[in-house]
Amino acid sequence: MTAPTIEVALAGRRGGFALEASFTAPGQGVTAVFGPSGCGKTTVLRCIAGLERLEGTCRVTGETWQDETTFRPPHRRPVGYVFQEASLFAHLSVEGNLLYGVRGRVPADAAVRFDDVVELLGLSPLLMRAPHNLSGGERQRVAIGRALLSQPRLLLMDEPLSALDRATKDEILPFLERLHLSLSLPVLYVTHDMREVERLADHLVLMRAGRVIAAGPLAALQSDPALPLVTARDAAVGLDAVVTHLDPAYGLATLAVDGGVFIVPAGAGTMVGERRRLRIAAGDVSLAREPPGPSTILNVLEARIRAVEAGDNEVTAVLGLGHDGAGARILARITRRSFERLELSEGMAVHAQIKSVALAPGVRR
Ligand SMILES: Nc1ncnc2c1ncn2[C@@H]1O[C@H](COP(=O)(O)OP(=O)(O)OP(=O)(O)O)[C@@H](O)[C@H]1O
Q1: What percent of the chain has pLDDT over 90?
Q2: Which of 19, 33, 34, 42 to mutate to test the pocket of ligand 1 (most atoms within 8 A of CB)?
């Protein structure tokens, strides 16, 4: 049996705007729909929810919601929808809002249980409060809880953090990470903030001007030289890694990825065997042709240059880790002057020196 997936293929016009969006996403985990303002992300989500209609197909984990002969109305599509701004019912308490979608009572055999949602989103101190007594972040947590308790097969989140300030975003991100770990529910998460993508998503749908230009695992798209992410100013790759060793005397952890190991500051509570995400920014990676001598840089990995994207004064090299370059891909952003002076070229074996590797806070499945 093939794994359940989300299959979307939509085409049509909205005024002067032409949309042609086709992609497949896994039937579990978080898939980010990422692209600049106005590229059609919200329209895609609204079509999946049945709130708008364009020609095409929409299949969600084995159910056909739309094809040539079918168009399920919105109330027959089991989606939870979280918008930019939480619109809670002012006359209901937080508890009343949470239970609104299930008419006051979660069925006993429901997949998503009330107590679990309250625990997951830290809502128990808020249950009796009225919405006007909540902060923006708390309101959004209630909106997410309400969407989950409607027992959806798919959670649609349309820029759920974009109306919040930076500190509130940082307060909510850990809840979203936990949600991802605790529930097997697939999530389509619209954002134009790459930081959120890197924290939350496993899979990416990349949109530009009404079209899906790529869809696939996050790290693969971040390191694909044919895509604009590679040359973006804040280009980075998120690698899923396993903690293999801890050195409490120095507060360091060793993490293995395909083709290499990284040593990073461990942070409290890190455990051997955990899966964690590493973020490696292109600007933090420099290249040497010979093994460098003693240095304060902890991470020097063997790699091969797999592709080169040259800008005016900078070059971004896509590296494959390992002596043969067959391992995980990372990016190195170096000056064109250094690139030419070192006579670097595609296929060449190099030593990648990584000045800083960030360990993302959440444990991954
Ligand atoms: N009903 C409509 N009539 C005309 N144009 C529309 C209609 N709905 C959407 N559009 C246009 O379609 C384009 C895509 O809009 P959409 O809201 O899907 O983009 P988005 O990627 O979600 O943008 P943002 O990140 O700013 O929310 C925009 O140019 C918008 O103006």
Answers
A1: 74
A2: 42
Which pLDDT band holds residue 1 (cuts at 50, 70, 90)?
low
Per-residue pLDDT of 78-95, as tens digits, reads 999 999 888 899 999 999
What's the CA gap between 131 and 134, in Å, rounded? 5
**Distance of alpha carbon 183 from alpha carbon 327, whole angstroms:** 30
Atom 23, ligand 1: residue with shortest CA distance:
38
Burial 118-136 (b: 16+ CB within 10 A, else e): bebbebeebeebebeebeb
Domains annotated for the chain, with CATH where assigned, are: 5-222 (3.40.50.300), 236-364 (2.40.50.100)
- For ligand 1, the distance from its centroid to the CA atom of residue 82, given in whole angstroms, is 18
- Nearest protein CA to atom 8 of ligand 1, as residue: 14
Per-residue three-class SS string for 41-106: HHHHHHHHCCCCCCEEEEEECCEEEECCCCECCHHHCCEEEECCCCCCCCCCCHHHHHCHHHCCCC
